[in-house]
Write a structure and sequence with these properties.
The protein is an alpha/beta fold. Helix content is 40%, strand content 14%. The strands form 3 sheets. Strands 6-5-7-9-8 form a 5-stranded parallel β-sheet, sandwiched between helices. A 4-stranded parallel β-sheet has the order 2-1-3-4, covered by helices on one side. A 4-stranded parallel β-sheet has the order 11-10-12-13, with helices on both faces. Helix 9 links the parallel strand 8 (210-213) and strand 9. The radius of gyration is 21 Å and the shape is globular. It starts with 28 loop residues before the first helix and ends with a helix.
């Protein structure tokens, strides 16, 4: 059966959330699984589903590819055969897929409410004010390279692309930052201060050569002398999940498992990163724990769905637990439910497109420049 996809989005404004129809509420798990499977079969190879590691189990099991932000960005760039990319993640990830995708492709986010609180901490208007204020303080902006974490809006990525900067992920932050310092005296890192601080410190940059730029304060709350001394300007942003972990959690785990080890994501605070045994991206965490000797015990400082998935996969040979016994859930990622996935897939079968993600020009052009710089750098590693 050939599926004719609608391409006219006049009735769906960018960013306008379409509510989930009542017909998709209250369905049994078995019914949803069967209908999702049928819809996927009907769409065939015209469809590709991407699922982030933090996605809930009942959704990610339908993903054709799973991974962290870097892996999925690379996969999105290679899926040019597909007419539709359904991204089971959050808004900035779907934007990246649209930026890197082919012109004929449609990118869908099952629920437009699946955002990222960290990305929301850096608005393009704030960044433009920052750039103006740096110049007003006497900082030569041509010597400042802007680097944005992939957890940012397309507009922020576009600014970085237009101003000789690029994107990074937790997997390649060190390589990206080294690239930036080869081209400028200073680096403006946004929106997550902790990724920037933790990575730079392990690259040998002392803390007294870093400053935090608070976009809510005039001139970032930083004086000119401190800016002139700094090599790294850290945007005052953070991940609401990873900053919940504390050194107290690490101490509690070590008391319970004296020989256990702690691995955390670089979005955690500096104190937690320093107290842990290992620090790295989501892919690094999976690889490190999976390759550890049988009998190992691990506390993992990242999102709960990934930790629980690792614990099930590696039991009973290894003990894997969340660093926070209460668990840290990414509530916005959780918004993408199997109900939403079913709705968008059955819509496609019927020739309807729900919740498309369309990044407008010229933002798309410059954001692609920033992403391509990152991907080119990754290919050289």
């Amino acid at each position: 059966m050939h599926v004719q996809l609608l391409t006219d989005y006049e009735n769906t404004r960018l960013g306008e959330r379409q509510p989930l129809p009542e017909a998709y509420l209250g369905l049994s798990d078995d019914d949803m699984d069967a209908r999702i499977t049928r819809a996927r079969a009907t769409l065939g190879d015209r469809l590709v589903i991407l699922g982030h590691h933090y996605q809930r189990d009942e959704v990610i099991k339908f993903a054709d590819f799973t991974g962290d932000s870097l892996k999925l960005a690379q996969l999105a760039a290679r899926q040019h055969h597909a007419e539709v990319v359904v991204f089971c993640g959050v808004h900035f990830m779907a934007e990246s897929a649209d930026i890197l995708g082919a012109p004929h492709q449609t990118v869908i986010l099952p629920d437009l409410a699946a955002g990222c609180s960290m990305a929301d901490m850096a608005a393009i208007e704030q960044l433009e004010v920052c750039w103006y204020e740096l110049a007003a303080l006497g900082i030569e902006t041509s010597s400042v390279i802007p680097v944005t974490y992939i957890n940012s809006t397309a507009a922020i990525k576009g600014f970085c692309g237009e101003h000789a900067g690029l994107v990074c992920t937790s997997s390649n932050a060190a390589a990206v930052m080294a690239w930036a310092w080869d081209r400028g005296e200073k680096l403006l890192m946004l929106p997550d201060q902790h990724l920037g601080r933790n990575t730079a410190y392990r690259m040998g940059v002392p803390l007294d050569q870093m400053v935090v730029w608070d976009p809510e304060l005039p001139f970032g709350g930083v004086d000119r002398e401190a800016l002139e001394r700094a090599r790294l300007l850290l945007w005052k942003g953070h991940c609401s999940v990873h900053t919940r972990f504390s050194v107290r959690h690490i101490d509690q785990f070590r008391r319970q498992y004296p020989g256990g080890r702690v691995v955390v994501h670089p979005e955690c605070t500096f104190e937690v990163a320093e107290a842990a045994d290992e620090m790295g991206s989501t892919e690094f965490i999976i690889r490190t724990v999976s390759d550890s000797p049988p009998g190992s015990a691990w506390a993992v400082g990242t999102e709960l769905h990934l930790v629980n998935r690792l614990a099930r996969q590696l039991a009973p040979a290894r003990t894997v637990t969340s660093l926070d016994s209460m668990g840290c859930l990414c509530s916005t990622m959780f918004r993408v439910s199997p109900n939403h996935l079913l709705w968008v897939l059955e819509g496609l079968v019927n020739g309807e497109v729900h919740n498309p993600i369309v990044v407008p020009e010229p933002t798309k052009q410059w954001a692609r420049v920033a992403l391509d710089r990152m991907l080119d750098l990754s290919r050289k590693d």
